[in-house]
């Protein structure tokens, strides 16, 4: 059967049109998919960003509330904000914000639980800070010393003791290993408890903090009296008395002579 040339031309003209239509439909479908995908992605992104912003805002509000609770008395206004941040982060990192440790709420005590000074003599213009945290047993405490960057320098626990602290400057007279007052080699802390007083001083050679007992006048008097007592010759033995045999020998010698 012969194919009409007109029919051949018609078929050849219809196929390109059909292919173009299919391609156009595919592109239209893809375009719709892309638009829908873009809308969904944008919605999800906006929703995620909104949730994230809400979370940040909530966290900020929670932090502000925690900070207000932590530094609850007016005496803590003397602590610069960056040091307050260091204290907060230390307590947050160690899970103390649940009430395990806290800063005293007693105004009269609050001014005696923090102090500043160049405790390690690092020769910069920023002070180190010492802070006393109280345990939730209301009997024990923790001394924390850190620099202006928030890096820990020293931590000490006090079981069943609630000391108070104050700082002193380099050159201040303190007791170190003896009852003779000597100049402190750097800034330090006085840690006073109910029963004793100690100085916390950084040892540059040993690269560590050391504590020195600070003597009261009564202790000094007692030590000096004991030294005077030991210096006296109370322990000198008396010459031995001659026994009867020796006396007879002495008499015999005298008679012979």
Throw out a few tags for this protein:
257 residues, five-stranded antiparallel β-sheet, four-stranded antiparallel β-sheet, 5 helices
How does this structure look, described?
This protein is α+β, with helices and mostly antiparallel strands and 257 residues long. It has helices spanning 5-70, 81-93, 107-110, 217-231, 244-256; strands spanning 101-102, 114-117, 128-135, 141-146, 152-158, 164-168, 173-175, 181-183, 188-192, 197-203, 208-213. The longest helix has 66 residues, at 5-70. The termini are far apart. Residues 250-257 have low confidence and may be disordered.
Task: Estimate what percentage of residues fall within beta strands.
Answer: 15-25%
Total count of helical runs of at least 4 residues: 5
The 3D shape can be described as elongated
Largest beta-sheet characterization: 5 strands, antiparallel
Please bin the fraction of helical residues: 40-55%
Poorly predicted residue ranges: 250-257
Overall radius of gyration: 43 Å
Straight-line distance between termini: 183 Å
Q: How many beta-strand runs?
A: 11
| Element-by-element helix/strand order | HHEHEEEEEEEEEEHH
Query: Which class do the helix and strand fractions yield?
Result: alpha+beta
What does the average pLDDT come to? Answer: 84
How is this structure best summarized?
The chain is of the alpha+beta class and 257 residues long.
Helices and strands in order:
Blueprint lengths: L4 H66 L10 H13 L7 E2 L4 H4 L3 E4 L10 E8 L5 E6 L5 E7 L5 E5 L4 E3 L5 E3 L4 E5 L4 E7 L4 E6 L3 H15 L12 H13 L1
Antiparallel strand pairs: 1-3, 2-3, 3-4, 4-5, 6-9, 7-8, 9-10, 10-11
């Amino acid at each position: 059967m012969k194919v009409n040339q007109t029919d051949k031309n018609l078929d050849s003209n219809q196929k390109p049109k059909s292919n173009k239509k299919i391609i156009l439909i595919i592109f239209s479908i893809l375009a719709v998919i892309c638009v829908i995908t873009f809308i969904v992605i944008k919605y999800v992104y906006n929703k995620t960003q909104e949730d994230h912003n809400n979370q940040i805002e909530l966290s900020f509000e929670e932090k502000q509330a925690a900070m207000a609770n932590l530094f609850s008395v007016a005496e803590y206004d003397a602590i610069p904000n960056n040091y307050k941040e260091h204290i907060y982060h230390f307590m947050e990192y160690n899970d103390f914000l649940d009430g395990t440790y806290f800063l005293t709420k007693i105004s009269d005590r609050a001014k005696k639980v923090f102090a500043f000074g160049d405790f390690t003599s690092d020769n910069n213009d920023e002070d180190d800070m010492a802070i006393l945290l109280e345990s939730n047993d209301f009997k024990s405490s923790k001394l924390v010393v850190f620099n202006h960057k928030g890096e820990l320098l020293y931590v000490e626990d006090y079981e069943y003791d609630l000391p108070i602290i104050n700082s002193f400057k380099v050159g201040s007279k303190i007791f170190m290993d003896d009852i003779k007052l000597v100049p402190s080699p750097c800034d330090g802390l006085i840690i006073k408890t109910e029963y004793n007083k100690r100085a916390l001083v950084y040892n540059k050679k040993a690269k560590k903090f050391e504590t020195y007992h600070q003597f009261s006048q009564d202790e000094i008097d007692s030590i000096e009296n004991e030294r005077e007592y030991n210096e006296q010759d109370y322990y000198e033995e008396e010459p031995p008395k001659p026994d009867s045999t020796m006396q007879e020998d002495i008499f015999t010698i005298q008679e012979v002579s």
